Design the sequence.
């Protein structure tokens, strides 16, 4: 099974240091990891550094990968107005680095990604006609269609309504378990992180503040320290942890 | 949405073929459109060959094309030696300018990007004007080739200047378009300066050159332009998926493994070469590089496997039809092609854009 380990990972933009010496234990396939932190903590930079889009000190170790390109990345949605249907936009994510001719298994993979995310009915729509939430789901399909072993998602639920947020995170969790895929998602909703992720890492000003099982990491003390909010965590009737934010401090 | 997500739990093992069926139909439709454009291009070529001081019927033209020995010596000379290079040059130049415009629009994410708006045509005009007004040859060359070589050298120098400036830190793709527009103004000022100092006769020659004309086409020039187009097209096609991804924005393209900066530079060099060669041989025909790609986009979408050949075919067809019109509007006079394409093509383009329900940019 694939594992990902970060070892003293750093990144700079010019002379400005964005990430300093991020080291983590090995994250294994089958897990969902929440990447948490306030705005400008370095979450997107960490993704770009893991992907090799930014240079810097330290190393990213991927062990046990079965494919040449084990990583897929969904960046934050920026919108697009290309004259492409949803089906084509997902297909082209699949076809990068491949031959021009589309094979039957490529189309099967596109169908599977759209079905997995429940957006098969959007296939014929132009991407320019989609709502922000629909675009975000298409972005997730573009990442999933690459059949990754490690899936990095930058704020995948930011444009989704509550219902779809819960559905997407449930689907990601199920797919991680079914396919032995490691999912790392940058999230702002800590309640959802508590409910849907196994591990969490917390960044603040480019430094790793905490890393471990989500329930151990997301504590009232951490929320106070990182997000400057007073909060408590209670268990609901089903035993799931619930985050209750009381006030900004 | 909800139903779809529920369905996904049962459908994962055997995905529904609906998407695939839709996509296959889409591909077939696009292949038919490309075939129709090719047929229209062939017909336009035949009509273009048939028209002129000596008129031929379409059947005579087709006979001369398929079995040259079956027609008279006179018809063979007129069709093959005189009209064919001009008619084919219209196709090659139209395709080259349209492909150049299409890829400039793709990599710069700007619907107004074209060899004309990036200053490449203006650079070529300046190079040609130097030769026409003062007999200056930037590179020593045979008399027949001084004007096109001057135009080509200046067009490429303009392209390289834009490339060099675009490599500076902090230069965005929006800045590159502004750099191009700055180039247009610089060369316009230099052209005005040349016209101020040049003789009346030279000014006329410069003005005529800038209108664009196919009449100076010869077989050797045609082979050069065709050779460049034939070399560049596969190089662009090789990047088909990556170029399509560029239209999703740099961040998305990068996330899919594309290197936007490197690809942008490589494609700019290739399409500058295409545009420089085209403009060098026929003068300024700016409109094709803008409109050909837009029509192709409306007909075929932006999957480069269809968009690239579609842009080439649309550009070739527009210029070929323009060549036909340039002969029939005023019988006995061939109006410069650049004027025709602008007068006829721009209203047609506006009609297409305004009548299309969805904005493509």
Sequence:
């Amino acid at each position: 099974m694939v594992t990902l380990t970060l070892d003293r990972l750093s990144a700079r933009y010019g002379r400005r240091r964005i990430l300093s010496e991020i080291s983590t234990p090995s994250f294994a396939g089958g897990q969902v990891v929440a990447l948490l932190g306030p705005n400008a903590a370095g979450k997107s930079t960490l993704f770009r550094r893991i992907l090799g889009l930014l240079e810097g000190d330290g190393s990213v170790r991927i062990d046990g990968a079965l494919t040449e390109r084990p990583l897929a990345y969904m960046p934050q949605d920026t919108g697009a107005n290309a004259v492409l249907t949803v089906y084509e936009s997902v297909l082209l994510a699949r076809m990068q680095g491949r031959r021009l001719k589309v094979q039957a298994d490529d189309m099967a993979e596109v169908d599977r990604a759209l079905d997995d995310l429940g957006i098969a009915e959007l296939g014929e729509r132009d991407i320019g006609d989609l709502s922000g939430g629909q675009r975000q789901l298409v972005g997730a399909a573009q990442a999933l269609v690459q059949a990754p072993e490690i899936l990095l998602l930058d704020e995948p639920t930011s444009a989704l309504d509550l219902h779809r947020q819960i559905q997407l995170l449930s689907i990601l969790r199920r797919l991680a378990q079914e396919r032995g895929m490691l999912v790392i998602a940058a999230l702002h909703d800590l309640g959802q992180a508590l409910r849907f992720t196994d591990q969490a890492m917390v960044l603040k000003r480019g430094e790793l503040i905490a890393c471990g099982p989500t329930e151990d990491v997301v504590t009232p003390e951490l929320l106070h320290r990182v997000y400057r909010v007073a909060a408590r965590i209670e268990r609901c009737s089903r035993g799931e942890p619930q985050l209750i934010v009381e006030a900004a401090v | 949405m909800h139903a779809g997500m529920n369905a996904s739990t049962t459908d994962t093992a055997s995905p529904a073929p609906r998407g695939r069926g839709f996509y296959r139909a889409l591909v077939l439709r696009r292949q038919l459109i490309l075939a129709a454009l090719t047929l229209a291009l062939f017909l336009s070529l035949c009509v273009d060959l048939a028209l002129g001081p000596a008129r031929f019927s379409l059947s005579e033209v087709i006979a001369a094309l398929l079995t040259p020995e079956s027609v008279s010596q006179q018809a063979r000379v007129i069709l093959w030696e005189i009209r064919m290079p001009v008619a084919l040059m219209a196709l090659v130049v139209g395709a080259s300018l349209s492909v150049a415009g299409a890829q400039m629009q793709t990599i710069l994410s700007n619907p107004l990007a074209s060899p004309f708006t990036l200053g490449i045509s203006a650079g070529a005009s300046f190079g040609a004007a130097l030769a026409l007004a003062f007999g200056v040859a930037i590179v020593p060359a045979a008399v027949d080739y001084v004007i096109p070589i001057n135009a080509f050298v200046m067009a490429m120098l303009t392209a390289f200047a834009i490339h060099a400036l675009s490599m500076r830190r902090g230069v965005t793709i929006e800045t590159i378009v502004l750099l191009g527009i700055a180039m247009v103004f610089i060369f316009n000022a230099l052209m005005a300066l040349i016209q101020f100092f040049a003789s009346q006769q030279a000014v006329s020659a410069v003005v005529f050159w800038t209108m664009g004309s196919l009449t100076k086409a010869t077989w050797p020039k045609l082979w050069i332009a065709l050779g460049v187009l034939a070399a560049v097209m596969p190089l662009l096609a090789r990047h088909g998926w990556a170029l399509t991804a560029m239209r999703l924005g740099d961040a998305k393209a990068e996330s899919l493994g594309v290197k936007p900066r490197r690809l942008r530079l490589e494609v700019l060099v290739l399409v500058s070469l295409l545009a420089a060669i085209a403009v060098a041989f026929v003068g300024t025909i700016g409109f094709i590089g803008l409109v050909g790609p837009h029509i192709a986009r409306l007909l075929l979408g932006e999957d480069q496997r269809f968009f690239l050949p579609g842009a080439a075919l649309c550009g070739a067809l527009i210029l070929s039809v323009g060549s036909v019109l340039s002969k029939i509007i005023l019988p006995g006079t061939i109006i410069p092609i650049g004027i025709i394409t602008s007068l006829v093509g721009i209203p047609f383009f506006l009609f297409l854009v305004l009548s299309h329900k969805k904005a493509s940019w």
